[in-house]
Amino acid sequence: MTSGTDDLLAELVELMRPIAEYHQRSNDEPDEDFFWSTAPEFMGASWDELTTIRKGVSYVEKIACGKRIADILTENTDVLREGVNTEHDAPMWESLDVDGEPMSYCPEMGLYAPKGFLIEQSAAILCANSGNAGNKGPFVSITVPRIYRTEATEWLDSFVEKAIGQFNVLKGRVLSATATKTGMDLSIITDAKVSPRSALIMDDAVWDELELNASVLTERNEDLKALGMSTRRGVLLEGKPGVGKSQLCRTFAEELNQQGCTVVHVSYSVGSHQLKSVFDSVEHLGKVVFILDDIDLYLRKRNDGDPGALSDFLSVMD
Question: Of 136, 153, 163, 284, which alpha carbon lies 20 to 30 A from 245's?
């Protein structure tokens, strides 16, 4: 093998090592130390009598659900038993900066809840998972005896609905969509450098065009909806580097954010490969303004790079 092949193989081995160690540990540990091993005893049912209801969630819903799980755990440490249901050494807690204060949430966590705590008729196991390329995204799940599947399904739907209503801290903020090892993520931008209009040398016609298109989100929004017309618009800015395209976008997006719109800055790494994931994730963020910078880098030339990139991009935009 070549040196390059050896390096790639070594890298793959290192990537797989944590998963192998996790499974080895779960095999070696006493049953009472492994999270899922005591599920039948805890539930009072055998494995073939249990069922798991799994619900895929968006990246926005992942944070909202994780926040709600974190609050449930924090407020009921004497009742609940937490564990891990993924390839990690411990349950995962993450922190998000919200208005200058850290907010803890659980993107990957499993917890045992006694009878009556989540489901009135039964004990239950609630899990959250950040997802990966294999399972196509984050999800939450609940495990109960099969006879309570209907009640558990209704509870899980209600759990997610309440989470995105009460714990949705991303709505109405300025966000950044970035790529991660397992997909994409959204984070709050707290230190965006935005110039006022007076600091930009820009023809009035440019501002007029932006305001006309943005009116579908502001003063004309309800009228258009009442007529059954689309409230989606886009403006393509073209020009040499340094003429102010990016700053213009930031300034105008900040103005719309002050009017209640959520703003999402889409990085090149996400926009060129996972734009659909970004669009799918904003369902619960109200009126949204996307800033897609350097879209020429997404597609390049028709005969250079991915031949399907242009059609994929246009399909997502539609």
Answer: 284
Q: Rounded CA gap, 185 and 72, in Å? A: 23
Which of 218, 198, 289, 290 shows the shortest CA–CA distance to 259? 218
What's the CA gap between 207 and 255, in Å, rounded? 12
Structure tokens at 9: 């193989």
pTM above 0.90, yes or no: no
The pLDDT tens digits of the residues spanning 103-148 come to 888 888 888 999 999 999 999 999 998 876 455 678 999 999 999 9
What's the length of the chain? 318
Q: Is residue 155 left, alpha or beta, with left meaning phi > 0 and alpha meaning psi from -120 to 50?
A: alpha
- C-alpha 27/C-alpha 123 separation (Å) is 25
Number of alpha carbons in the 13 Å side-chain half-sphere of residue 109: 25
Handedness of CA 288, 270, 294, 250 (dihedral sign): positive
Average pLDDT of the segment spanning 226-244: 87
Going by DSSP bridges, is the β-strand pair 50-56/174-180 parallel, antiparallel, or unpaired?
A: unpaired
Q: Which residues contact 288 (CB under 8 A, 6 or more apart)?
A: 261, 262, 263, 264, 282
Question: Residue 271 pLDDT more than 80?
Answer: no
Beta strand segments in 30-91, E: 50-56, 81-83
